[in-house]
Amino acid sequence: MAPGPRDTDAQLIATAGSDPAAFGELFDRYAARIDRWAQRAGLSEADALELVSELFARAWVGRRRYRDPGDGSAGPWLYGIARNLLAAHRRDGRIDARARARLGMQSRPDDDAEEAVDARLDASASRPALERALGALPAGQRDAVRLRVVDGLDYPEIARRLSCSETAARKRVSLGLQFLRSEMEAVR
After folding, report:
1. Which pLDDT does position 10 carry in this prediction?
2. Do 149 and 183 reside in the same domain of the chain?
3. Are 81 and 31 in contact (CB under 8 A)?
4. Do the domain assignments include residue 2?
5. Which domain holds residue 146?
6. Distance in angstroms (rounded) separating the CA atoms of residues 188 and 185
7. CA pair distance 132, 36, nearest whole angstrom
8. pLDDT value at residue 177
């Protein structure tokens, strides 16, 4: 029997193993809302889509562990997973793709080659302005941004290298990136 709009989330999850369309219905109910939530939380459109993809991959893998809170809603469970993924993204700068890898899913569609070339050309043309903006940053912020963005270090390591607290390292990166963003927007 095909899932219907009257089925609760809990019923859809319970039957998803034998009827994958039930899980599709759950996806249809929540994907757009969670995508909007992730973008309002500050993720780019691409990262929000990746969060939604990873969220539903994890939900599929963990569907047997789902426990109905009594009202049949999976919303709190799904948003809990989404909050954890968002926190990990803020901490690590990426969405963890382990569940999608276990399912053999593609992590992210390949970028259109033309768009990639355009992005590289835009970046190349913006380089002098970016170098000026970097030079205008206070040394602590410039070093923190370089360690985070260029070297890809996590915040505990940045804090260690800059001899400051992790909170101070995060603040330096955040302030530095805000300044760079405003400077680069003024150039465009």
Report:
1. 93
2. yes
3. no
4. no
5. 113-187
6. 5
7. 35
8. 82
Residue 113 exposed, middle or buried by CB count within 10 Å (0-12, 13-18, 19+): exposed
Question: Tokens in use for 125?
Answer: 């043309």
Domain boundary (102, 131, 149) is at 102
Residue 107 covered by a domain: no
Polymer length in residues for the chain: 188
**Amino acid letter for position 73:** S
The two three-digit tokens of residue 112, written as one number: 């259109």
Q: If pLDDT is split at 50, 70 and 90, which confidence band does 89 have?
A: confident
Structure tokens at 150: 């260029």
Please report whether residue 108 resides in a domain.
no
Q: Hey, is 161 helix, strand or coil?
A: helix
8-state DSSP, 42: T
Question: How do residues 28-78 score in pLDDT, each as one tens digit?
Answer: 999 999 999 999 998 888 888 889 988 988 888 888 888 888 898 999 999
Q: What is the pLDDT of residues 153-172, one digit of tens each?
A: 888 999 999 999 988 888 88
Q: Does residue 141 or residue 113 have the better pLDDT?
A: 141
108: number of CA atoms within 13 Å, CB side? 14
Within the chain, residue ranges assigned H as helices are: 9-15, 20-40, 45-61, 75-92, 98-102, 113-136, 139-145, 155-162, 166-187
Per-residue pLDDT, 122:
55
